[in-house]
Amino acid sequence: TDAQLISYLEFGIHLAQLAGPVISEGFHKRFSPERSALLVKQGNTVDLVTEWDQKVEKMVRSEIAGKMKGHAFIGEETVAGGEECDLTDLPTWIVDPIDGTANFVHGFPFVAISIGLTINQEPVVGVIYNPILNQLFTGIKGHGAYLSKIDEDPWKQGRRLPLSYPHAPPPLTSLSMALVSSEYGSYRQTDVIDPKVRSMRNLSARDPSELSPRRATAVGHAHGIRALGTAALSMMAVAQGQLDVYWEVGPWEWDVCAAIVIVREAGGVVVDACARETTDSQLLMGRRYLAVRACCNEEGDTSPEAVKAAQEKIIQ
Ligand code: IPD
After folding, report:
1. SS3 for 222-258, per residue?
2. Cα-to-chain-centroid distance, residue 70
3. Torsion angle, alpha carbons of 277, 83, 95, 230, to 10
4. Which amino acids does the record list as binding Mg(2+) (predicted)?
5. Looking at residue 218, what is its pLDDT?
6. Domain ranges of the chain
7. Which of 2, 10, 215, 223 shows the smallest number of beta carbons within 10 Å?
8. Could you tell me if the ipTM is greater than 0.95?
9. Is 128 annotated as a binding residue?
């Protein structure tokens, strides 16, 4: 029921309130003499895990186990530790304790805990909290998405997403108007990186055929490409209307579960980045994501042409 979903969202905010100070403490201690102990494991030289990722996930997981009987849990560090975490129809908390771990290690202040909840394998509640910038993003399926501070009531004191400054962004009719975000991710084998580089080239290079003004507005190259270092907060920039498009192949369900709810509730779309038809469960577990911001055209929807154009530019 709606009341139940609201109580789950409040519980998600409670988890973010517990985790926030621990993440902040780690972030601000990173240059202390113990910093050498910060990295506890490297899956490869760019896939970083710190003792704070593990500490936060343990804390959140035990809070869920204690207070949400019968619910399941999928967490980045739990899976990395070798536990089987299949997605089932049970209410399932899908958590990345620190999304943007490389940012965390380097002191780039885009780090967040991402807490999603699925029911019947469908993302229904999302809570994303950046404790460094004190930004709390929340969403419930069918009830809108909000940006607030951690100690505020999102509905009473928060701002509904997408934000307007003071007007909503214009309709996104082509990529030639777009600020696009993507990532190289943590798999750096050339066969993974090369197609990403080609997609970035397609998004940014000027094609001679685009010199004709008519074609330039139809498919022109993007205004710019950004890489924020966190899937969850990149998608929150899309939800706010600050970035037009986010796409990435490689993130996991804990990076995007909460963000899928929030982007959609902010009027945007999240689909398979390779244009496959998917159920929500297949999308969530599929590791290929394309998010496009809301655009306020007459119908109030994101233009399907913009989504299609993004997919065509990106797919290799
Ligand atoms: C990573 C970040 C990064 C993205 C990777 C994710 P982590 O999550 O979201 O931006 O490129 O695909 O795995 O390791 O910082 O939790």
Report:
1. CCEEECCCCHHHHHHHHHHCCCCEEEEECCCHHHHHH
2. 26
3. -70
4. 76, 96, 98-99, 255
5. 41
6. 2-160, 175-314
7. 2
8. yes
9. no
Pick the CATH number of 175-314 from 2.30.42.10, 3.30.390.50, 3.40.50.10540, 3.40.190.80: 3.40.190.80
Q: What is the pLDDT of residue 199?
A: 85
Is 86 an annotated catalytic residue?
no
pTM: 0.92
The predicted structure's pLDDT at residue 275: 82
Contact 264, 239 (CB under 8 A): no
Per-position DSSP letters for 276-294, written without gaps between them? ----HHHHHHSSEEEEE--
Catalytic residue among 183, 255, 302, 314: 255
- Residue 101 is a catalytic residue: yes
Fold of the CATH domain 2-160: Fructose-1,6-Bisphosphatase; Chain A, domain 1 (3.30.540)
* Per-run averaged pLDDT (10 residues), the chain, 316 residues: 95 98 91 59 66 93 97 93 91 97 92 98 98 98 97 95 77 81 90 88 71 48 92 97 93 98 94 90 96 68 68 65
- Cα 36 versus chain centre, distance: 29
Please list every protein residue whose CB sits less than 6 Å from any atom of ligand 1: 76, 96, 99-101, 183, 185-186, 229-231, 248, 250-251, 255
Q: Which of 115, 121, 64, 61 has the alpha carbon at shortest distance from 91?
A: 121
Nearest to 123, CA basis, from 115, 112, 131, 133: 115
